[in-house]
Write a sequence for this structure.
């Protein structure tokens, strides 16, 4: 008891110091901001990050039209000698904005380009780049008031140049989720949403300022038909990311399964899982070999019009009951299947994005193949289903104005073997008033009071507060939410933060041990069950 009292006295003393000198939005480590221009010299195995700025609504279809139809900003990039590969990447908050990254060598020749069409990220590569002054040019092929940022690295070797390991160790995926964002209570204009992206083809359903529905037709359908029986849908965007050393690679063969009798019709889930069969996970090893194991099920989603890896994502709604983070579970979403594609960098600060693609959601691609289906994500890549997609919601019926936590969990039922099974949850801390939703904070972890949370910030789906910092500095630890990360925010006094921190310290002393493998509180007050 004396040890506990001493620690509390020390905590109080520290918190009193905070009252006089703490900034209301201080972090343990200052984030490394993108610079205005790349480094003066890019040495071997060094990298540089810089902010590209913003471009107004512009379409520049080809390089000769740069400066005539719109700006094509460029930057010099001095390369050292001996580089095996130059890679230059681009990140933009909306995949409906398309940029082209163009790499021009010291002689003035355009030698590489890459476009982020219907993606958040893209990257251009040059093998054995000569030293000297290169030019990185960004051409806005079709953008609307879009911002972007850039990064570059000069690599001394390629992954395929390295010898394979003599030791046979598994290279497993590590699935995490994009913390929920883009909240609202308006259903998409196309309720069935059977069309293929881009997202702009399915705007919110609003007529003369009135939004009659928050749920799509299949979400409102009876559960006996595979619907969600939803009444009032809080919609949002989220998705899986793969931050592990191995590919997230899931395989299925519908025709073979029908012949073998292992796939079957599911008439009670007509609108969500009309055909169901066994899914396999491919495990990759460091010596180049692979193994296959059964990992859950696949199904054909008639509304999405392609196959899914079943139950990849799960969504939960919690009401915040007090200022120290007591939560009551008040709603759920449907257990969502997914057909992911490589559309966003899971970690902007790491240059580990792989090119071995297990699949994708292209029309007539692997997500629609009944013969040799493949679903998954390359190393270092992620994807989102935006709020328009059926299933991207939690039930909000019966709830009132106030503060809530929305959780997004990946692989809740442990079908996929991962390199880390304990980091599968993300959160958004929101405030709801009428039909308006304000994001206060979002990040990895169970909630804003999770001591191991990683706060996300910035306009894009995967921008974290400390992009560019070392891995040891990639966590923003705290006892409560950062009120300054929302779409609108007000100053929080150091005194109030001190009191909240003291309360949270007491709460963690009593309840800190009762969390599941994802850090999710398991006591009755937190679960509501």
């Amino acid at each position: 008891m004396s040890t506990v009292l001493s620690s509390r006295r020390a905590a109080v003393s520290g918190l009193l110091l905070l009252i006089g000198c703490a900034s209301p939005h201080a972090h343990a480590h200052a984030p490394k901001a993108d610079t205005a221009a790349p480094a003066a010299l890019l040495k071997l195995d060094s990298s540089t990050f810089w902010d590209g700025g913003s471009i107004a609504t512009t379409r520049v279809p080809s390089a000769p039209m740069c400066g005539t139809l719109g700006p094509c900003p460029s930057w010099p990039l001095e390369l050292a000698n001996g580089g095996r590969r130059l890679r230059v990447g681009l990140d933009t908050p909306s995949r409906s904005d398309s940029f082209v990254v163009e790499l021009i060598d010291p002689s003035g020749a355009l030698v590489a380009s890459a476009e982020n069409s219907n993606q958040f990220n893209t990257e251009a590569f040059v093998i054995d780049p000569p030293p000297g002054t290169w030019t990185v040019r960004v051409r806005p092929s079709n953008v609307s008031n879009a911002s972007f940022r850039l990064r570059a690295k000069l690599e001394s070797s390629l992954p395929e140049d390295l010898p394979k390991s003599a030791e046979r160790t598994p290279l497993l995926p590590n699935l995490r989720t994009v913390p929920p964002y883009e909240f609202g209570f308006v259903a998409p204009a196309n309720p069935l949403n059977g069309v293929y992206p881009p997202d702009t083809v399915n705007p919110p359903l609003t007529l003369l300022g009135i939004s009659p529905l928050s749920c799509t037709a299949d979400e409102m359908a009876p559960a006996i038909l595979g619907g969600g029986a939803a009444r009032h849908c809080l919609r949002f965007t989220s998705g899986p990311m793969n931050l592990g050393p191995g590919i997230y690679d899931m395989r299925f063969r519908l025709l073979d399964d029908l012949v073998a009798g292992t796939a079957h019709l599911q008439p009670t889930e007509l609108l969500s899982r009309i055909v169901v069969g066994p899914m396999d996970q491919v495990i990759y090893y460091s010596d180049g070999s692979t193994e296959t194991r059964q990992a859950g099920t696949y199904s054909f989603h008639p509304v999405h019009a392609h196959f899914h890896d079943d139950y990849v994502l799960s969504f939960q709604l919690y009401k915040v009951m007090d200022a120290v983070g007591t939560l009551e579970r008040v709603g759920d979403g449907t257990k969502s299947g997914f057909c992911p594609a490589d559309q966003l960098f899971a970690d902007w600060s790491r240059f580990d994005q792989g090119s071995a693609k297990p699949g994708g959601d292209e029309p007539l691609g692997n997500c629609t193949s009944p013969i040799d289906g493949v679903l998954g994500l390359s190393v270092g890549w992620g994807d989102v289903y935006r709020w328009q997609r059926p299933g991207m919601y939690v039930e909000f019926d019966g709830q009132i104005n106030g503060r809530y936590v929305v959780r997004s969990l990946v692989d809740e039922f442990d079908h996929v073997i991962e390199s880390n099974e304990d980091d599968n949850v993300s959160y958004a801390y929101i405030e709801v008033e009428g039909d308006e939703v304000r994001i206060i904070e979002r990040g990895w972890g169970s909630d804003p009071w999770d001591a191991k949370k990683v706060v996300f910030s910035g306009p894009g789906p995967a921008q974290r507060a400390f992009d560019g910092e070392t891995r040891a500095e990639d966590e923003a630890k705290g006892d409560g939410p950062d009120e300054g990360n929302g779409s609108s925010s007000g100053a929080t006094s150091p005194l109030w933060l001190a009191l909240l921190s003291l309360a949270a310290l007491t709460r963690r002393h009593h309840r800190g041990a009762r969390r599941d493998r994802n850090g999710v509180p398991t006591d009755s007050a937190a679960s509501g069950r």
About this structure: Helices lie at 2-21, 217-220, 254-260, 494-511, 524-527. The radius of gyration is 24 Å. The longest helix spans residues 2-21.
